[in-house]
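Quick one: structure tokens for this chain, please?
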Amino acid sequence: MEVMSSPTALDLLWGTRDRPRRGPKPSLTLERIVGEAIALADAEGLANLSMQRLAERLGCAKMALYRYLPGKAELAALMVDFAMGAAPELVAESVAAEQLSSESPWRRQLRAWAVAVFDGMCAHPWMQELVVGARPLGPNEIGWFEAGLTPLAETGLTGAERLDAIALLAGHARALAQQTVGEPGLENEMARQLGATLSAHAGRYPHTIAAFAAPEGPGARDNALNFGIDRILDGLAVLMATRAGD
């Protein structure tokens, strides 16, 4: 009798392996398993996610999970793709926002994309550990690549430059999400906590004190996400203008 090999993460992500049709109707679904794993990681962190804990949450034996996926590595790949969900409809959103802003469509769309990355990372902080390095990518995650690259398609940038552009935006969004998750108003809270300490050492840290004490101007406080997005987009605009002039 031929023994079928276990499905790979790519098989599971892309549905390239037929699920068994014989035997009793499965009591679980892959979608439910991954959904419960995401809920557990959201509530308790990735370190507390195990196949045993997941089985307890689902009310089944640990071995029952292996009917659906080979192990935790494949589960992690599915969790990332499921948690990301479908990419935002940037073109439709940009058209709707056009009346409210004179910003170029490609800038509006990339800004929305980067903010959506930030929001997703804040909603699922455990993803920070899973989206690094070479790994299997699913349809949702590649859909996010497609959504980010679409506004840059007619800008004159090379393929490598377009990829680097969304890598910069995603990296900025993820870094800010890692710093601010669970800490709304981070910069203001830092200023409050540092106030007494800095005032006692004014001569040692004059520029830090000046930055925190400066009156509000054009740059709003606690706006590092949009400030960074603006600077990346400004740089891209200069590069596009250079390409157009070549």
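The radius of gyration is 23 Å.
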